[in-house]
Amino acid sequence: MGDIKIAIAGVGNCASALLQGIEYYRNRGPEDSVGLMHYDLGGYKPGDIKVVAAFDVDRRKVGKGLREAAFAKPNCTTIFYENLPDYPVRVPMGYLSDGVSDHMSDYPDDVTFLPSDEPEADVARILRESGAEILINYVPVGSEQAARKYAEACLEAGVGFINAIPVFIASDPDWAGRFRERGIPIIGDDIKSQVGATIVHRVLTRLFENRGVRINRTYQLNFGGNTDFLNMLNHGRLSSKKKSKTQSVQSQLATPLASPDIHIGPSDYVPWLKDNKVCYIRIEGSGFGEVPLELELRLSVEDSPNSAGVIIDAIRGMKLALDRGVGGTLDSFSAYTMKSPPVQRTDDEARQMVEEFIAGKRER
After folding, report:
1. What is the model's pLDDT at position 311?
2. Is residue 20 within 8 Å of residue 78, measured between CB atoms?
3. SS3 annotation, 298-336
């Protein structure tokens, strides 16, 4: 089927886990592919993904080779495949804009961003010259301006855009219309982990609903020790994340909960947890005879590989769209892989839509 040429904006933990995963699964067969939702997706396998460009804003990564950047501080995700190739890719300065919060300077160098003073690269030109077909947006939560600049660069360069962060682009009708007019596919917004806090909360919410239990109140509290959680200590950068996670869960209810009865969002930063994310979910409901029912759950995951297990499908789904000349928002893969797609679906519905798209029975 050929290579899938991708570029990455933000060589952080999520990018590191994705690069490791591509190599980890490259020479594995379907019988030895634990951790993948699809080993073969429309004829494309994980090893078909080739990184041809990458951008970052941290001085420890800018100007470095991609392999070195993937393991540089403040990255702290588990290294499950250390022998990355010596990619012929150097990391230029990306869009700084609002990508680094001021409060980051209050923390030790090994856990926080250190902005480079290099001039910003011409992203659209690099995308064109590298032959990139798809750009994955992994910039930090709250980087609204930077995310939109990368989307603009994709429109200029004719490159597909996967928006893995909670900035509303694919789900914004104006942005979606611009990608559709240019015939460029887009998937978004805000990556939904393979088995993460939000998808577990969604499934449990749907279970209560389907079994006739009324949900009265619920919360989801998350904390971890990577730069994502450190970044979100600035609550001014958190509003889109909370909105994305909350509406993702609310979408599974026939009647959404009143605002005081639902609380979902990152709660704190615990440095020694590193890339481990701990989630607590509580649901209070009323069952048969309106007798109270309560559920509490604790979930502990390595955050970035959990994300990479989903993005590796989004990449291959977008490649199928490119092969077929499909532009605009990919409704199937957006609903399947993202917390805030243009149209919310149940997870079973979204998976069925994806299978239909892969089989060519669905346009987008």
Report:
1. 98
2. no
3. EEEEEHHHHHHHHHHHHHHHHHHHHHHCCCEECHHHHHH
